[in-house]
TrEMBL record:
GO terms for biological process: phosphatidylethanolamine biosynthetic process. Residues 69-198, 258-356 form the Cytidyltransferase-like domain. This is ethanolamine-phosphate cytidylyltransferase. Pfam families: CTP_transf_like (PF01467). It comes from Lupinus luteus. The chain crosses the membrane at residues 20-44. The keyword Protease does not apply. InterPro entries: CCT (IPR041723), Cyt_trans-like (IPR004821), Ect1/PCYT2 (IPR044608), Rossmann-like_a/b/a_fold (IPR014729). Keywords: Lipid biosynthesis, Lipid metabolism, Membrane, Nucleotidyltransferase, Phospholipid biosynthesis, Phospholipid metabolism, Transferase, Transmembrane, Transmembrane helix.
Length: 419
């Protein structure tokens, strides 16, 4: 039948709206098409389609999950990376992260500090990440952009408001912007991988820069001034901590696992031991030692990252439920009781203390609740720092190259805006 011969349907809707409303709902719930009505082949024009009648609009839109994509090198993972991915996730329902390959990083920026495997462990360990694409290109070409849209069903490409330039000075996200599928987030001030490399090199560049058995610092005044120029500019707020926190308390009968440490230069070894610790209970509580405590036991050139930076990095890990900011070196009975700790764990791979004082785990050991966990990875903060020191010249060139590119970008931007 043609549309004009179906006037009885519209008359029925007009005079018996309740009856037809029930039929429409029933048909929708049964997943049937409009041909259900007597096999008459009714084809409603656009103004009268199911979606425009707005019966199931809300439910239908609820099924459509927005997928956003953000890529990066994520080398020397820090809380700035984590905050960027947190912001990106807030722009959609599912966050897909593109991890740039080692070869692409070498060609565009210089040698990476961490391997692809280590960077993958760090990125996939973040609580906001749903999926990771490895071997992502440094520049998003139209070909890769089409792959994102069709193969990975990406709706928007996300990046920070800081420049990301190719060696020729062009914008790495030009194709995404041209397609109208680009969204921007605010860069986290006060930290960058370049800055962290600078902190490490200023603190550890002198092999004689160490402490004697009494913890006396032998660094000269000039070296102290050099380090101060690379100190963190991060200003912590309670709001930022809340943004990173799970905001959940352990249940009344939860098995609470406690692990402590400096967690400086948060790396893949940290992620893996936290993952292993979390499997021993229902709630993972992490104690993060204060800057003073770390300096006393590791040397005055540590920590590289200060307490609140380290706390955010740990909070961003999907395996962590809560942290104690500035946890004590020695675990006491009162602490165990206060936090209702069921088991205390420590990894086999860890930085050595400068002192042979009382074992900080004596109390939980005597209580029979201490467990030594075999560390899945043989990596420490010191070993990561040593990689950078071993490639000092290459990283200096890398930092200088990035700084020059950003300077040119901002100068051109200022010229175009007429400032």
């Amino acid at each position: 039948m043609v549309y004009e011969n179906n006037n009885w349907i519209w008359e029925g809707i007009y005079y018996y709206p309740n009856v037809f409303g029930v039929l429409m709902v029933t048909a929708a719930l049964l997943g049937l098409s409009t041909s259900f009505f007597g096999g008459i082949g009714v084809h409603l024009p656009l103004p009268y389609s199911w979606s425009n009648l707005r019966i199931f609009d809300k439910k239908k839109s609820g099924k459509r999950r927005v997928r956003v994509y953000m890529d990066g090198c994520f080398d020397l993972m820090h809380y700035g990376h984590a905050n960027a991915l947190r912001q990106a996730k807030a722009l959609g329902d599912e966050l897909v992260v593109g991890l740039v390959s080692d070869e692409e990083i070498l060609a565009n920026k210089g040698p990476p500090v961490l391997s692809m495997e280590e960077r993958l462990t760090l990125v996939s360990g973040l609580k906001w990440v749903d999926e990771v694409i490895t071997e992502a290109p440094y520049a998003i070409t139209e070909e890769f952009l089409n792959r994102l849209f069709h193969e990975y069903k990406i709706d928007y490409v996300i990046h920070g408001d800081d420049p990301c330039l190719l060696p020729d000075g062009t914008d790495a996200y030009a194709a995404a912007k041209k397609a109208g599928r680009y969204k921007q987030i605010k860069r986290t001030e006060g930290v960058s991988s370049t800055d962290i490399v600078g902190r490490i090199m200023s603190s550890l560049r002198d092999p004689k820069n160490c402490e004697d058995h009494n913890g006396a610092d032998e660094r000269s005044q000039e070296e102290n001034q050099s380090k101060s120029s690379h100190m963190s500019q991060f200003l912590p707020t309670s709001r930022r901590i809340v943004q990173f926190s799970n905001g959940k308390d352990p249940g009344p009968n939860a098995r609470i696992v406690y692990i402590d440490g400096a967690f400086d230069l948060f790396h893949a070894g940290h992620v893996e031991i936290l993952k292993k610790a979390r499997k021993l209970g229902d709630f993972l509580l992490v104690g993060i030692h204060s800057d003073e405590t770390v300096s006393v036991h590791r040397g005055n050139h540590y920590p590289i990252m200060h307490l609140h930076e380290r706390s955010l990095s740990v909070l961003a890990c999907r395996h962590v439920d809560e942290v104690i900011i500035g946890a004590p070196w020695q675990i006491t009975k009162d602490m165990i009781t206060t936090f209702n700790i069921s088991v205390v764990v420590h990894g086999t791979v860890a930085e050595n203390s400068l002192y042979n004082e009382i074992d900080p785990y004596n109390v939980p050991k005597n209580m029979g609740i201490f467990h030594l966990l075999e560390s899945p990875k043989d990596i420490t903060t010191t070993s990561v720092a040593q990689r950078i020191m071993a490639n000092h010249e290459a990283y200096m060139k890398r930092n200088a190259k990035k700084g020059l590119s950003e300077k040119r970008y901002y100068e051109e931007k200022k010229y175009v805006s007429g400032e």
